C-alpha cells in the first residue's frame, strides 16, 4: 500500500485536525492505512478521535416497525441515489411495505430479504418494478430484527438514524419498559454507543484507547496550562473492566497517604475518601461513557447514567439487544461501490 499521498494527507488532516507534517509521517509509518494513522496520531497526542473518511451518508431512509405486542421489532435501511427521491412519498411508502413484509415473514437479514417473494414476485423483480416507477436505483441494504419480552425502536426525524432495543422484564412492568426503551432508543440515536455494557468492549480496543485517551488529556493539559486554567486528571485506566479490586485498593491507599501528608486527622478520612474514590472511578472509566450504553449519562437526565435510569423504572428490566443504523454507514465514497451493491441485489 502506498504511504502518504496528497489526498490521504488531506483526508487525515480533516479527520484528526493534526498538522500536515504529522499526518504525512503517520501515513508513511502505516503504509497509507488511514485507520492506523489516526490511531498513531492519537497515541502521540496529536489528533482527536475521528470517523472513517471513507464513510459518507448515502441517500435513503431508515425505517422501523414494532409488532402489536411489542415482542418483535424490525429495521430496514433502503438506499436511493438522491435526497429528492428519499423524500418522495412513493419511496417512503415502499420502505414501509418492505419492512412490514420482512417482519410478517420472519425475515431478519438483507440476504434473506433479497431471496424472498413479495406480492407474488421475486424480490429483485419487485424492486426493479419500483425502480422503473421511482426512476432511480434502489437497494435494500440492511435489515435486522430483534425479539424480547419487550422491544421498541426509534427513527430520528430526518430518517437517517434508527435504533432497536430489546429487553427482558417482569410482565407487570412491560408497558413502562416499552416507554423506557423508546426513550433509550432516542438517547442512543444521539449518543452513538457501540455496545450495551463496558463488559462487551474488546480488551485490545480498551488497551489501545487507554493510550490514546491519556495522550489526548496530556495534550489538552499543555494548552490548559498555557491558558492558566485548571488541569484535567490524567487517568490510569479508561474502563471499568480495568478497575480491579487491587486497582481500587491502590487508589484508596494513595488517597490515604495524601491525606496523611496533608495533616488531615485520620478520623475524618472516612468522610473524604468515598468522594475521592467516586471521582477516581469517573476519571478512569471515560471510555465506557463514550461507547457503552449503560455507562453513558442519560440525555433525559444527565445527573444519572442509563443504567441508573433503568433501575429507577424497575430492577427487572435488562437490555438484551441493541442495534443502531446510521444511513450510509460503511458505503465508500466511490459511486461504483453503491452501484455494485445495486447490481448484486438485482442479480446482475
From TrEMBL:
Q: Where is the Translation elongation factor EFTs/EF1B dimerisation domain?
A: 73-329
Location of the protein in the cell:
Cytoplasm
SUPFAM superfamilies linked to this entry: Elongation factor Ts (EF-Ts), dimerisation domain, UBA-like
Specify the superkingdom.
Bacteria
User: Which InterPro entries does the entry link to?
Assistant: EF-Ts_dimer_sf, Transl_elong_EFTs/EF1B, Transl_elong_EFTs/EF1B_dimer, Transl_elong_Ts_CS, UBA-like_sf
Q: Which Pfam families match?
A: EF_TS
> For the region Involved in Mg(2+) ion dislocation from EF-Tu, what residue ranges are annotated?
82-85
Q: Which GO terms describe its molecular function?
A: translation elongation factor activity
- This protein's UniProt keywords: Cytoplasm, Elongation factor, Protein biosynthesis
Q: Which GO terms describe its cellular component?
A: cytoplasm
Name the major location.
Answer: cytoplasm
**Is Protein biosynthesis a UniProt keyword of this protein?**
yes
Q: Which NCBIfam families does the UniProt record give?
A: tsf
Question: Which PANTHER family does this chain map to?
Answer: ELONGATION FACTOR TS, ELONGATION FACTOR TS, MITOCHONDRIAL
State the protein's purpose.
Associates with the EF-Tu.GDP complex and induces the exchange of GDP to GTP. It remains bound to the aminoacyl-tRNA.EF-Tu.GTP complex up to the GTP hydrolysis stage on the ribosome.
- Family stated for the protein in its record: Belongs to the EF-Ts family.
Question: What is the protein's given name?
Answer: Elongation factor Ts
Organism this protein belongs to: Arcobacter suis CECT 7833
